Amino acid sequence: MSAPQVYAATTTPNPKSSWFLVPSASLDKSRFVIKVLEVLLSFTAFILEEVVLSCVSCSALYFFEFVSCTAFLFTLLLLILLSTTLHTRVGITCWPSLDFVYTGLIAVLFLIASIVFSSDNGNTTVEKCAVAFGFIATLLFFVDLAMFWRSHGFPFRKDGKAESSNGVPPAEVEKLNTPAAVGQ
Asked: Potential cystine with 134: which of 56, 114, 139, 144 (Cβ 3.0-4.6 Å)?
């Protein structure tokens, strides 16, 4: 018997071994699209802010630069981790909580940065466009947060279920050898 005949039935490819995991428990298709748009809009806001040639009060510009760059880089990282198998290799088990807190924090920071930059800029077209993309990205971060809450609920609620503690099982509630059980 030749080798292909012996191994043909057992070496079929596994369709579940794909590296791309959308939809998954961590990220559904609609939130994946929203996160891609968040990455693109925050990157566009960052690039437009970088094109500004001069600033009247540069602190607002620098704060907007920091927030838009942070939103772009960390949202891209989160998107890559949650949509591939890489999130299983990082050692973090609380991805829903991390995603919820990160998205909420960036939404608030982007809102503050966009408001501050819109109130304190040189009124050039590039600055106005950067602010507009900042507000649109902010809106998408809030939409992402609402979609997460609608589909997964609040990730920190205490509803009687044992919460994950990074791989450590919850402590036993009742001991096996209690004095009442030993005497019977």
From this structure: 114
